[in-house]
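We modelled the chain as a single entity of 209 amino acids. Its sequence is:
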Amino acid sequence: MDETAVTVSAVETVGPDTIAITFETPAGFDAEPGQFVLVRATVDGEELSRYYTLSSPGVDDTFEITVGVDPEGDLSPWLADREVGDDVTIEGPFGEVYYENEPSVVVVAGGPGVGPAVGLGEAVASDGGEVSIVYRDDEPAHEERLSALATSGSNVAIVGEGSLADAVAEVADEGQVYVFGFQEFVEDVRDAIEAAGGDFERAKVESFG
């Protein structure tokens, strides 16, 4: 979809310095869990843009992005100030890493990767599939949704830096692996999968740079 305005329908704090923004879905917008949109804004006269991966399991009536708010940043504080009824400009969706109705899925997420992890995990669970999530963060976000997934039968592990390899090794062969996070994290996951005897080349990987 070309550049279009979407209306904010909710803004929620979902973790330390982390918000989830829900938008009304515009006509013609269609996206799968794992894909992302480009958010554009003019802040203090400067044109800014950033990519944000969807954190909702679907886009039928609304869709959600999760934003880590850097107080010294440019676009994220502006987004954190949005209110219900405000319009925000987006383009997309983009991305070739997305849920394709696999019956069993393993999502490994670091930091902001928790957004697509919860959205994709909820989509798989809603379809009756098997879900395992390994999430590395010292200050987790979306804990309520992760807890709900665990309560409904999904395998959810929130780990620190030293526990990633063991957690990944336990689930790496349990389905299609998705990886969401910054490049250093992606490399850590690659090492963990290969150490466990898995094939990292089979993973669907979205590096945030």
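As a brief sanity check on the tokenised model: The first strand starts at residue 4 and ends at 15. The chain is about 25% helix and 40% strand.
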